[in-house]
Amino acid sequence: MFYPRLSGDRYVNPFTSFGFKRLFGTESNKNILIDFLNVILPSHHQVKDLTYCSTGNTPLDLNLYCQSENGERLIVEMQKAKHNYFKYRNIYFSSFSTQEQIEKGNWNDKITPVYMIGILDFVFNENKNDDNFFYIVEHDCQEKLKFIYLELPKYNKTIDRLNDHLDKWLFLLKHLPDLKDPPIPLQENIFMQLFEIAKITNFSQTEMAAYENSLKYYRDMNCVIETAREEGIKKGKAQVIQEGMRSLLFKQLARKLGTLPDETRILLNQLSLEQLDELSEALFELGNIEDLHNLLENI
């Protein structure tokens, strides 16, 4: 079956669920994720190797969750849409990484550090007039829990002003779909490997279909956000976004799984904005209605 392309881009959009997992979630290409992590993490927690972790029935099923060879827990999330409780949600997710390290009835100081890294396609409200795009939030837990946020909309360097490896990574993440060929400053081995993985013409028909669905959802989600912004009424903005996301998810689920049973629609109508966002991240991995119900039980 032929799938017409919605995108004329040469490279995958990393802010789509498919694109994010394509670039960072593949065992055979985990050196790409390691390279990225090592420009973000402090020098005393550099990663030589990592393992992609299975998270069972925890909400971490919706994130990229890894463990370094020294035991540090690493959660990486590409967040495309802003919502009011994003930081609180991160605290909730990261708590599972701590809980799994604690043997029942045996509290001690052997808990390894947990890093949650958010690559954001939006700017926090409280930071909107601040030019700083790199934030580290450290909780008072003996340096065991840190949140690192990259607000990519604030990153405005051009290709001729890239000073270091971090600059190159941020430029690449922000501009990858806009590039036609690898720019000279990004023609390092690690980036050339990434460009090859990200090349849309290398996708199979199944991968192309999954990417086009993921890209359509990303674009539709941006339209929902823009509609809410144009409403101009701050009080109702969250409700506009929530209803827009819910309507969009109904359409996407029906397209993928067929007509939704009434009981499923009732469950979806009860989801909060944060839960709808979580569901959107796992949308294209669902195979049937039963998968959807199992996911809804764990959100």
Can you walk through the features of this model?
Helices cover 44% and strands 11% of the residues. With 299 residues, the protein is an alpha/beta fold. The protein has 2 domains: 17-201, no CATH class; 232-298, no CATH class. The chain has a 6-stranded mixed β-sheet, with helices on both faces. A hairpin with a 6-residue loop joins strand 5 and strand 6 (145-151).
Task: Explain briefly what this protein structure is.
InterPro entries: DUF4351, RpnA. Residues 239-296 form the DUF4351 domain. This protein has 299 residues and is α/β, with parallel strands linked by helices.
Give the arrangement of secondary structure elements.
Blueprint: H1 17-24, H2 30-40, E1 50-52, E2 64-68, E3 73-79, H3 86-99, E4 114-120, E5 134-138, E6 145-151, H4 165-175, H5 189-198, H6 205-231, H7 234-257, H8 262-269, H9 273-282, H10 289-298
Parallel strand pairs: 3-4, 4-6
Antiparallel strand pairs: 1-2, 2-3, 5-6
Helix pairs in contact: 6-7, 7-9
Overall number of domains? 2
Strand content: 5-15%
Query: How are strands sequenced across the largest beta sheet?
Result: 1-2-3-4-6-5
In total, the number of strands is 6
The major pleated sheet works out as: 6 strands, mixed
Low-confidence stretches are 1-5
Overall form: globular
Features:
6 strands; six-stranded mixed beta sheet; 299 residues; disordered N terminus; 10 helices; 2 domains; RpnA; alpha/beta
